[in-house]
Design goal:
Mean pLDDT: 96
Radius of gyration: 16 Å
CATH class: Alpha Beta
Number of domains: 1
Distance between the termini: 14 Å
CATH topology: Rossmann fold
Bound molecules: 5-O-phosphono-beta-D-ribofuranosylamine
CATH superfamily: Formyl transferase, N-terminal domain
Number of strands: 7
Shape: globular
Length: 189
């Protein structure tokens, strides 16, 4: 059986994409392609330096999904990892990759999930609510936003002195610690 080919989809800085690609156990078992819905020269040169394919997507959500579907087919992608990808994945892609698409969300779903809950908005809402803990949720992608089967959750406490930036920092540390390992276990069992 061919080794897994992972398509990493990003819209942000791509720190989670970098960590997955730099994670030795993943790098030795799998190949990668990075697709970005935004211009990202830093990730582009990161991929070029490693001779990894990097493609930028363009257009509205439907056009992006058509591009993703075509690329995944042409490149024989086996798994899709959403790492800060802000567009909704089409039902057709979800059907073709049933139980082989993961998303990472920066809160303890189902709290602070759903439409509009992404990036800093999540941490601001957690801060405003006076939560004493937050975390990350890694879940399969289903047709309903942020409601796929939860694969892993990791928590961190919030102290009274934490501001939104410090909450975000704590969440990003969890991502750094756990996301690549969860992806490896998901992809190669
Ligand atoms: C991360 O906080 C992730 O939890 C969320 O979007 C952010 C992506 O950050 N889904 P990056 O682009 O990987 O730096």
């Amino acid at each position: 059986m061919n080794s897994p080919k992972i398509a990493i989809l990003i819209s942000g800085t791509g720190s989670n994409a970098r960590r997955m690609i730099n994670f030795e156990p993943l790098r030795t078992c799998c190949s990668f392609i990075v697709l970005s819905s935004k211009n990202n020269e830093s990730i582009q040169s990161f991929c070029n330096d490693r001779k990894l394919e990097y493609l930028e997507l363009s257009g509205d959500t439907d056009e992006l999904n058509i591009q993703i579907e075509r690329i995944c087919q042409e490149k024989h992608v086996t798994h899709i990892i959403l790492a800060g990808f802000l567009k909704k994945i089409s039902p057709n892609i979800i059907k073709n990759y049933r139980e082989r698409i993961l998303n990472i969300h920066p809160s303890l779903l189902p709290k602070y999930g759903g439409k509009g809950m992404y990036g800093r908005h999540v941490h601001q809402a957690v801060f405003n609510a006076g939560e004493t803990k937050t975390g990350i949720t890694i879940h399969e992608v289903s047709e309903i936003y942020d409601q796929g089967k939860i694969i892993a959750q990791y928590e961190v406490t919030i102290s009274k002195s934490d501001d939104v930036d410090q909450i975000e920092q704590k969440v990003r540390q969890l991502e750094e610690l756990y996301f690549p390992e969860v992806v490896k276990n998901f992809v190669i069992g």
